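Reading a protein record of the kind used here takes only a little practice. Think of the row as the fold of the chain written in a discrete alphabet. With that in mind, consider the following protein and its fold in token form:
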Amino acid sequence: MTPSATPWSYATLALLFAATSALADACSGPLVGEGRVAAVIDARTLRLDDGREVRLAGLAPLPDDHALRATVALKIVVGRSVTLHGDNDAPDRYGRQSLLVQQDATTPPIQIDLLAQGDALADLTRPACPGAFRAAEAKARRGRLGVWTDRSVIKNAESPGELLASVGRFAIVDGRVLSVRQAGSVTYVNFGRRWTRDFAVTMPERVLPSFATAGMLPKAFEGKRLRIRGFIERRGGSSETSPRIEATRPEQIEIVGQDE
């Protein structure tokens, strides 16, 4: 591939550095290791030259038709030395370490560059620099870059059938809250009137204190337009089925302004 065909040209990288360097200090973590990138496995996973596999912490799975572009974009780090940061470097059940990855101490994690270029989506269900990740992603969304050229990336809360087609997948859902109800130990943030069919966000009782600390009381969501991210689940029996996202962290929910 010629340099002009590379998704991240050196000019683009310079612009991205200027736009995101302020985020470097806001998004880091304890140094837990280092290595040289030997290969890109997929849009979120690197293999180091010592055989370790590193999952880029805080990034969500991309829709299939965008994952290839993101994988190609990530290949710019192949052959480069990186440092690994995080609060926990324990591998997952597949042997992958989920970490922030930096090329040097003066630049933000490569996750930030991917998000700012539109080659990643932020998974804010996990504790990895939510503020910096959201800010970088917003740059790409405003500029209609990468994955954000596809308007269907943000799903409509009023289309439960479309959401059910995405069960088990990560999604960003946008809609206006009609009601908030509590049933047992679960709070339901409802985006439709038919609770057996329409989309809702569920919030277990155990997570409500963290939302209160963040100034996000569920009852205050009524009438507001929200943008929620997480994995779509199906709830209900054979005759009653509705799409759900469980919110366990305040970062998953964004109150959307009228200018968006």
The CA atoms of residues 69 and 187 lie 39 Å apart. Confidence is low (pLDDT under 50) at residues 1-25.
